[in-house]
Amino acid sequence: MHIGILGAGQLGRMMAISGIPLGMRFTMYDRGADVPGAAVADIVTGAFDDLQRLRRFAQRVDLVTFDWENVPVASARAVAAIAPVRPSPRALAAGQDRVAEKRLFTRLGIPVAPWRPVEDRGDLARAIAALGVPGILKTRRLGYDGKGQARVRRATDADRAWQLVRGQPLVYERFVNFSREVSLVGARDRAGRTMFYPLAENLHVDGILAMTRAPCADARLQRGAESHLGRLMAALAYTGVLCVEFFVERGRLVANEMAPRVHNSGHWTIEGAETSQFENHLRAIAGLPLGSTRARGHSVMVNLIGRMPPRRSIAALPGVHLHDYGKSPRPGRKLGHLTYVGASRTVRDRLAIRLLRLAGAGTRSFRPMC
Amino acid sequence: MHIGILGAGQLGRMMAISGIPLGMRFTMYDRGADVPGAAVADIVTGAFDDLQRLRRFAQRVDLVTFDWENVPVASARAVAAIAPVRPSPRALAAGQDRVAEKRLFTRLGIPVAPWRPVEDRGDLARAIAALGVPGILKTRRLGYDGKGQARVRRATDADRAWQLVRGQPLVYERFVNFSREVSLVGARDRAGRTMFYPLAENLHVDGILAMTRAPCADARLQRGAESHLGRLMAALAYTGVLCVEFFVERGRLVANEMAPRVHNSGHWTIEGAETSQFENHLRAIAGLPLGSTRARGHSVMVNLIGRMPPRRSIAALPGVHLHDYGKSPRPGRKLGHLTYVGASRTVRDRLAIRLLRLAGAGTRSFRPMC
């Protein structure tokens, strides 16, 4: 089976690495040829709104999926006229606009933080007055890794925040005073059967995911998150892997955002689960039965951001696995990740601290997980 | 680091799949371009004795290793004049001639079955008279997967055996009345440090490896095999992964043959060990510290020979991993393998029987392992 991927970043690269042993081959579409996916796939270059090139790309493959969730929906629809696109352009659209996403969550009974759409400076003042501070002013579209966001700690921060992100549709969200951040990765096959990984707990530093630990052994949270994700997948007639990030506020799940694709907080599944999120995404879109999502131990995943530690230091840590995305270093850029699977939480957490240090992420926020 | 591999079969393919996440890139040399490695590497095509093309290939890479142990030693030497070749051409040569191999084993105190070189029909008669029957007449060079071998059950089989393999240097070996076949995969880094995987038990059907189970929990055999392999690696100043297959005859190890490369009986390590044989081979030749060889449970690996079972049947078995080599089916050809890692030997063996059936290998010879 010949899989096309829109986007050829690290997610596409890891998808191909897990799909090639299944007998699949890959062609990826991206703006340039010097991309992480190039090591494991043919690359077609073109703009993401060049419908003619996208159609030619679609003609080469059996079905198409995403490495990047911000592919224009019109482009996904043009591709879908030629080859099956999974998840569907409709599911893709649902995650591209924070307002549409929050409305969908609310309609499905998935709690979200209080929010207001913001079109102008007056909207922002009214939103702050109605919802209070602290809060976050976010662009409705194209935000990731903390980009397109401005904090509003006090009402007097409003002007600075406005200047930072103005000029596009925005949303003001009241800050959730969370005790933990968790995410649930699930897969839904073409027959509507679902499988969920154990909840993972995330640590963000400066808006970028620094560390994920799994499984988070809280049966009540797991049930709640699975119920939310299951309803969301059913509502979107979803095929593939879907991730929702949640805050935990006084023991209650509050949805932050969804990603209609494999997710950074699921990278631990490569070594840490019986079937990785990448393989399960491919199984789902290829019409195969899903694989076991059982955890193989206590996992930690630490992102390598901005610079790569010496390979020798990584290789010297027993049981630690490097995933180098083949990208050139740049501040704030995700260059790779490290994984470790331990026999207990204690052993895992001991390694987690070493990995955070090696990654230069600091360990101030480190504490036992759920 | 840019790794060159001589040969682009499934071993090279799996090596690249494990090395790309380490940030390595791969170029492979083989006779044709339609090879398993093509999914994950650039391919340079040429004959294995075309020294000019081989030299150009070597100029493109940082160091060179093998997917195929029968690369002519003169070719390996020509390449070594341009780029480091690991393991060395000398180590490669040691495994290419059964007589040289047996002499080396004997010199190092590694037991082998009684044997005699055979140049003509008279030699064969004298060898049978001296060593007895049953025995096996083998070509000294280029044998694999049971090819280039003829059984001599009774003295009257000698003529038929001679006709089957005559025309090249041969060796007659007395048949070892073994209770088990095991193999040890070990790695040696550039500083001479060694790591050994747990012994694996192999089941051959018609001369081809059908199934491997690991770990084989026999501490005495493990110690003995490690001692043999360690001496062999030291004698060859070896860098990389090396495998020796042994018979177990009345509780005693008898070496059958060595392979100066990753080995089919080590494929279980991809899911079943903390670091796979492929990653450890790459770590060794790249000058990185070796990774943990600890088993992650009780593994079985079943080869898919001649035909691929339906993908849906494979995917429906929880915890089973497919490794498709991307080859077109042909009787007797290794097309892929399946792996399963279980929590106990009982659970693993239950799956092993299902996998053998799925692979069409039959289960007549199945019994509890060491």
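Chain B has a mean pLDDT of 94.
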